Amino acid sequence: MFGIADDSVFSDFEEEELRRPIPRKETDGRTIYISRELRMPKDWGAPVLCDFGSAVPSDVEHLEDVQPNIYRAPEVILEVPWTNSIDIWNVGCMIWNVFEGGSLFTGQDPEFQTYRSRAHLAEIISLLGMPPPTLLARGQLTQKFFSNDGNFHAGIPIREQIPLEQRETSLEGQDKVIFLRLIRKMLQWEPSERASAKELAQDEWILKNL
């Protein structure tokens, strides 16, 4: 979310509460208030990291099913032990969504008309090609989607591979080149091949657009 650089939002909120206190009730010794919305600020602040309710230590491997569906990293889908490199995949998807105005992946399964892991994997394959055997060998759910020789057999077709160059339509020339280079640093099948957050902080596109 974004911070608020317009302090009048909060002073207006306080004055409105003094004039018209919002309804409340007490239950089990707690006071519960009806929410009051803040008005839109005139000036936005810097992006703010928040909502760490599902945060876990990053220096150990995990197998929990995490991330919103369309942002799930391949290792999460396949139940490969994961670390903080899933966040790099997540950020890559989010940057594309914000900048391009649409999702790289939806996971929408045409048969079930809802999100399914097999549809998500098919979309990733359409973009990146087949996953490396080294990744498949570590997945607890690999056999559900891939044969022993690494072929995708999840009962859903893989669309024709469309490279990022054709999907990106808002940039031209060198700006397009360095933007796609940034996205590719994050969207890699193998977690170890993704750039670290420290490396991304020095990326040419990031530095140019700060």
TrEMBL record:
InterPro entries listed in its UniProt record: CLK_kinases (IPR051175), Kinase-like_dom_sf (IPR011009), Prot_kinase_dom (IPR000719)
Record-linked Gene3D superfamilies: Transferase(Phosphotransferase) domain 1
Keywords of the record: ATP-binding, Kinase, Nucleotide-binding, Serine/threonine-protein kinase, Transferase
A Pfam family per the record: Pkinase
Single biological process term from Gene Ontology: regulation of RNA splicing
Span of domain Protein kinase: 1-206
Name of this protein: Protein kinase domain-containing protein
Taxonomic source organism: Talaromyces amestolkiae
